[in-house]
Amino acid sequence: MSSRHEREARIHELLNTVQQQRLDLSAAGRDWLENTARYDRGWLTLVSCRRYLAIGSSALAIWSVRSPNRLLRIAKRGFGLWSTWRMIKSSMPGR
Hints:
- By secondary structure, the protein is an all-alpha fold.
- It has a domain at about 1-50.
- The chain has 3 helices and no strands.
- The protein has helices at about 1-50, 50-65, 70-90.
- Helix 2 (about 50-65) crosses helix 3 (about 70-90).
- The chain is elongated.
- The N and C termini lie far apart (about 70 Å).
C-alpha cells in the first residue's frame, strides 16, 4: 500500500516539475520576443519595402548604364559625406 502512495507522490512531484518547466519556458519565450522585437520590426520594414527597392535598383541600373561617370561622382560625394560624418561623430565627446 505504501508503494502506491509513494508512486502517487512521485507522479505528483513530476507533474509539479513539468508545470514549473512550462512556466519557465513561457517566461523565457516572452523575454526572447521582447529582446528581439526591434529586429523583427526592422525585418518587417525591410520586407515591406522590397518592391520599392527592386524598382529603385532597376532604375539605378538603367541610369548607371546611360551615365556611368555621373553615378561614380555621386558615389564619391556620398562616401565623402559619410566619412566626414564619421570623423565629426568620433571627435565629439562621448555621452
